[in-house]
Design brief:
There is one protein chain. The protein contains 21 helices and three strands. It has 474 residues and is an all-alpha fold. Strands 1-2-3 form a three-stranded antiparallel sheet, with no helix packed on it. Helix 2 runs parallel beside helix 5, helix 9 packs antiparallel against helix 10 and helix 14 packs antiparallel against helix 16.
Length: 474
């Protein structure tokens, strides 16, 4: 019978649909619901901030990528919309979203399947941390520690047990950035490298008690110059904890102040900067993608990772800015609008551009929703300018710091205090500004006596002119 079939797809209707005289099956109804929830009209009405809107659209793509049934997609999107709406009212930026708050809201929403998929999506977006993955890494780390030779094992066990305890304390106290498992694993690899070097180069040593400062210095010389100071600090903390716990009897590393190393990459000179600006302007129409990438590095100080992570939903043309993760928004200049326009025209020519959420897409990944590889940005910037993105970024920070001071890098570019200090000292900058202001005040005061003498000399002349004018009038 015709009444027993869906009018849209021809599928069989459920008894409840027939009872309540519904002429569309649940699949077709859910498809319309999903299309409505992801439409621009609905998103404009429910969301105010671009990061919440972009996150909701990426959730729809995530559910579609993993072939979640259409009815389940409609249910998950309808539950996620009010949660993200409350999140944008509670938090100013996406980076401010608290993991504990999110977990509580997901538990309150119920539905085990929804919670599992939504939590997996948040882990993919790096908003939630994967506790299961972290636990596996820590278990693998402890297994590797058990394979270390006995004469070097005890100190490693004590040190990393202390690190894991510190991480758990951070999590219990709801620290915003607890000690990362990645940091713990990195330090293990460093100390493991030291132990391997001692076993190969100093096989006569019986353990940490026989390690001397000359051995540590010889090991540091095998590292790159830029890594030696950080490694020396880590080794000092490592041996200091061992002495505190009475595992070793001495600290074979001296606690010296950090040494300032020469720059490995020098910023561009003023003439080179002018030539680069003219080069970017001349290639707006011929090489829009290369010119746009170079402008993002040279004018705005973006790193390769930040460029790769930009999505189309992060670009707000009306307000003239691009939302970025872990730093303030990027405000577009007049030339940036022209570059962006020409780049988007080129991007539209790709047949798969409409289905990709990332702003920069590669021909090598036509069917994969992944950011472009790191070499993608570096190759295009170097082909146009002859310089690496890192060189352009350093030039940007150096020029801005020289003009406005290193504090401006913290507020406008989101750099840390340590990172900003590489491009200038705030105290020296403030001292220079104060000296400049005093020179201007002194020059102003020195001009005042001359102006007074001129005024005094001109008074008798004005008086005589007024008297002559008065007599002429009579």
């Amino acid at each position: 019978m015709e009444s027993l079939c869906c009018k849209e797809c021809g599928g069989r209707l459920r008894p409840s649909d027939i009872k309540f005289e519904r002429f569309s099956c649940i699949s077709c109804t859910s498809k319309r619901r999903v299309a409505f929830l992801l439409s621009d009209q609905y998103l404009d009405n429910i969301f105010v901030k671009m990061w919440a809107r972009g996150l909701f659209k990426r959730l729809g793509l995530f559910l579609e990528t993993f072939d979640v049934p259409i009815p389940a997609q409609a249910l998950m999107l309808s539950k996620a919309a009010p949660l993200l709406q409350e999140a944008e009212q509670t938090f100013l930026r996406l980076d401010d979203v608290d993991e504990t708050w999110l977990e509580e809201k997901i538990e309150q929403a119920g539905k085990r399947i929804y919670a599992r998929f939504f939590r997996a999506f948040l882990i993919k977006e790096q908003i939630l941390s994967s506790e299961a993955a972290d636990e596996k890494k820590l278990e693998a780390l402890q297994a590797k520690i058990a394979l270390i030779p006995q004469q070097y094992r005890r100190l490693m066990e004590v040190y990393f047990q202390e690190q894991i305890t510190l991480r758990e304390r951070h999590i219990q106290q709801h620290a915003k950035q607890p000690l990362a498992v990645k940091t713990i694993v990195h330090k293990f690899m460093l100390f493991q490298k030291l132990i391997r070097w001692l076993l190969e180069q100093m096989p006569d040593l019986c353990g940490w008690e026989m390690v001397q400062e000359e051995h540590i210095q010889a090991f540091l010389l095998t590292l790159q110059p830029t890594h030696r100071e950080l490694t020396r600090k880590d080794l000092y903390q490592f041996f200091r904890l061992g002495r505190k716990k009475k595992v070793v009897t001495h600290v074979p590393v001296m606690n010296l102040p950090s040494r300032e190393l020469p720059r490995t990459i020098e910023p561009l000179t003023r003439d080179e900067q002018k030539a680069l600006a003219r080069l970017i302007r001349a290639n707006i129409y011929s090489q829009p993608e290369e010119a746009f990438l170079a402008a993002l590095c040279f004018y705005h100080g973006l790193s390769t990772a930040q460029i790769r992570s930009i999505r189309t939903s992060d670009v707000d043309v009306e307000r003239g800015l691009i939302h970025l993760k872990d730093r303030p928004p990027l405000y577009l200049l007049a030339e940036d609008f022209l570059l962006l326009e020409q780049f988007l025209l080129k991007r539209k020519t790709l047949p798969y551009a409409k289905t990709r959420s990332y702003l920069f897409i590669s021909n090598q990944a036509k069917f994969d929703e992944q950011p472009v590889p790191e070499q993608y940005v570096a190759q295009r910037v170097r082909s146009l300018t002859g310089h690496t993105p890192r060189c352009l970024r350093i030039t940007c920070f150096t020029a801005v710091s020289a003009r406005y001071g290193p504090q401006y890098l913290i507020e406008a570019f989101g750099l840390s205090l340590t990172h900003a200090s590489r491009y200038g000292n705030l105290k020296e900058y403030l001292l220079e500004e104060e000296m400049k202001q005093q020179k201007e005040d002194f020059a102003e005061l020195s001009r005042q006596p001359g102006q007074r003498k001129k005024q005094q000399a001109s008074r008798p002349q004005r008086k005589m002119e007024s008297e002559q004018h008065g007599s002429t009038g009579q």
